[in-house]
Amino acid sequence: MRVVAVFLVSFSLFSFCRAQNAASNDTEEHFSYIEPAQPVEPDSQPAEQDTYLIEECLSNKYTHKSCKKVFCHPWERCVEGKCLCKLPYQCPRNGTSVCSTTGRHFHTYCHLKSYECQRPEAKFLNKGKCTSTECSAGEFHCANDKCISVTKACDGINDCGDLSDELCCKECRNNSFHCRSNICIPNKDVCNKEVDCLTGEDEAQALCSGKSKLMKIMKKNDENHSMDAERKLAKTFLPQINCGVVNHTLTRRKRIIGGQTARKGEFPWQVAIKDSGTEGTTVYCGGVYIGGCWVLTAAHCVSATRVHLYRVWIGLLDTIQYDTETDTYRLNQLIIHEKYNAATYENDIALLELKGHGKGECSLKYSIPACIPWSEHMFKAGDKCKVSGWGLEKGYTKQYVLKWGNVNLFQNCSELYPGRFLQKMACAGTYDGSIDSCKGDSGGPLVCFDAENVAYVWGVVSWGENCGEAGHPGVYTQVASYYDWISHHVTRSLISRYNI
Question: How many CA atoms lie within 13 A of 440 on its CB side?
């Protein structure tokens, strides 16, 4: 019921412990060179044969933080054999004043390092007091106030140190790779089996198919290579989720007037919401399955007083024809956004937790979840996305089968809907109004696809002015703006494809 809602139709066990003190290259650390032990016979115990090492000492596992063996840095103090961070006031007051990247002024370098010990983001920036840095005409002003040559911006290299020189680029220099979110990444990060662009175009199959599966990436030095390998290894231990991928290739047909009938399994995240307190087969609202026992819909679709009456239909195509590959769920709970405004449709979003069968688990065998986008920069104006639902056709006639249509994302609809198009809203449609969502589509998904054809629910059908009217595209709740709100309720591990 879009208010004229639309269908529109070991991390290696090599620990980088000394990074805290050595990462900024402020203090040299000296290590003795130990001659490698001579080869031993296969039956021998290497540790016993190596005369260079003291076995009884090795068991203590000393490190550069062990002040029984080494001196602590000036900003550390020795406590029970370990170098721990001093409090800043415990540093000597003599020295040169310095400034940190957080904009804070410190009396001495020791004070800064002591503070950094506990707040790692406070790196050394420059000597003297913190002043707003004035960059010259030929320089780029980094977000951390560092000045670099403007020719170093948008070249795929993090010259600022905070990456601010690579995040706002219309195009990229030096043949570095340009992500659709206007970020530049170095060519060495393209087709390295690790997604760097928000929507994965740097690892798209079409781009990487001609490259060797065993492609070797040149690194500046062995340490960087090791650190990169460890970072990648760490990511493999993160929870993996499967969302937004269907068993067949979604066709990108030319524009369909009024929408196209959906095929079986084409929109496996689409659900129907019915109210058992009303008669007939009408789908009251749509929704989108996002994993586990959770469905996303519009807040204006549901009421807390009718939780016991709602039924969520999974795998439904035709609302009249019986289909064995459908399932129905009652609700366990309903969560409406706490700042939803029924008058303006601001924060028009809600979560439905399905009541699982048997032991309470939700094994939705006829459904695949759509992915939740974590950034408002993943898709942009002009991108073609798909909207689906059982909403009214033009002329406000009922329909009983799931339909879908291609729509374009619009840049901003503030001028089309003055005073009504608010933050966290998105709009999409066709310029002539031929494809749109309508009443009955509310709560349903506006889905956009990344470079690997993975589906993200970019919007939830919210409201619009009439249906299929030129100059009045449908308005949607922008799901990316509610990533934290959704993850707070359903847990981040359920919906996080990359950013865990």
Answer: 24
For 207, residues 6+ apart whose C-beta sits below 8 A from its C-beta are 190, 191, 201, 451
Q: What is the pTM of this model?
A: 0.70
List active site positions. 300, 348, 442
Tokens of 416: 């089309």
pLDDT in tens, 46-96: 445 577 777 778 788 888 888 777 778 888 887 877 888 888 878 887 888
State the Cα–Cα distance between residues 335 and 355, nearest whole angstrom: 14
Query: Do 286 and 444 form a contact (C-beta atoms < 8 A)?
Result: yes
Measured CA to CA in angstroms, residue 69 lies from 96, 143, 172, 495 at distances of 30, 41, 50, 47
Q: What is the mean pLDDT of the chain?
A: 79
pLDDT in tens, 216-237: 444 444 445 555 666 666 666 6
